[in-house]
Amino acid sequence: MLHWLDIDYRTLFRLGDGGRIERENDPEGSPGPGFWLAGCAEGNIFGVRTDVPEDIAEELERLVADEPPFTHPGIPKHLGRYLPLLGGSGPVKYNFGLIYELPHALAYEGRARLIESGTGEGRELTRTWAANGVPQGLFDLGFHDVTDLWEPWCAAAAGDEIASIAFAARLSDAGAELGLVTAKAFRGQGLGAAATAGWSRLPELRSRTLFYSTDRENHASQRVATRLGLRLRGASLRVG
User: Is the four-CA dihedral 80, 83, 86, 88 of positive or negative sign?
Assistant: First the structure.
């Protein structure tokens, strides 16, 4: 199980010397957290960003060694110590996450029409978006142009409209982290679950371990996981 979490760690982040976090492993190379902790019943793993001073990194390592297995809905024993170490004298942002196991070739009995990257229909969709812009419902969720459509992806259509897109938010040789957006007008209809199931069947992902992660407060995303019967296997903490 800890090996499974380690794959997730190496999928989420681009790592430097000593396995420390350089940045997020997304196409944009976004800044990574100062500290990341993930846990399950068997124990915990953690990562520290490369610019965190060595003395603070060593103190974080010492605290994690004394941390009981971090599982949902619990709170890390040393949360009150981690935050001031990363935040100095000011406040520091943090959030809790849930990590689900996402099986390959997930079955889902939905009626949505699925469109996959790498197919003729998928290429036509990207050409249309490049020429005419992204639909407003997806634009409002951060899909501002066709370059935000990270492959491999699977879209669920409702009639002539793209309702939900599952895409590779993070991709490594060993793992793939699902990203999922569903336009507000189509939520609660099973279209996010349909796109997720379709994404899990993409041939580019067959050799990779698949992860479905979400914030602890993102109840809509958790409903998708419940609809698909996904197994909750880990909890996470991001600081900074």
Answer: negative
